[in-house]
Design a protein that fits this description.
Number of strands: 0
Largest sheet: none
Mean pLDDT: 83
Strand content: under 5%
Structural class: mainly alpha
Helix content: over 70%
Number of helices: 5
Shape: elongated
């Protein structure tokens, strides 16, 4: 009888560890995916009117629909707030875990987006203010970073896949977790 109780206690404690491990990697996954999805969605939404203005400026810098700048400014402000919030949240969560690599990769990507945003703002100002003639000079860092965005995303995807492999996470589980924080 004593043997059965000890074995039962071991099984219960092992299943508890497994459950803690599941909770741990689910939380790490949720934190990182939620941050990426939130920022990417806002970034992509803001880039729609931004692309329109950039296309217009290539055709005729003086014929740009300036009303779009107000929309872009407000969307950029929202993006900045989300970048700040998500980055700070990940930094705090990273300190509470032993699994820091995924957090660090996500934070690095978000910092890259912030760096790109810091270059976009003066560049857009030069397009909006037709008196300023340094548009070409200001566009260089923006173009260079825009070209690097796919590389940065690939780096993040590699770390994401390593995390999935480490915990044997299948796409079905990722989809399920994403559905929970989309609600």
């Amino acid at each position: 009888m004593k043997k059965i109780t000890v074995i039962t206690a071991i099984i219960i404690s092992l299943s508890g560890c497994h459950s803690e491990k599941d909770q741990h990697f689910k939380q790490v996954l949720k934190d990182n995916l939620e941050a990426m999805r939130t920022v990417q969605y806002t970034f992509n939404e803001r880039n729609i009117p931004l692309k329109i203005i950039l296309d217009q400026s290539r055709i005729d810098k003086y014929g740009i629909d300036k009303s779009q700048f107000t929309l872009i400014d407000s969307m950029t402000e929202v993006l900045d707030q989300k970048l700040t919030h998500q980055t700070n949240k990940l930094i705090i969560e990273k300190e509470n875990t032993t699994d820091k690599v995924f957090y660090e990769a996500t934070i690095e990507y978000l910092k890259f987006i912030r760096d790109l945003e810091n270059d976009i703002t003066p560049f857009l100002k030069s397009i909006e203010d037709t008196i300023i003639e340094n548009e070409e000079e200001l566009s260089i860092p923006v173009r260079e970073k825009a070209l690097r965005i796919n590389t940065e995303m690939s780096n993040w995807r590699r770390v994401e896949q390593d995390f999935y492999d480490k915990y044997d996470i299948k796409q079905k589980m990722v989809d399920s977790l994403e559905n929970t924080f989309k609600r």
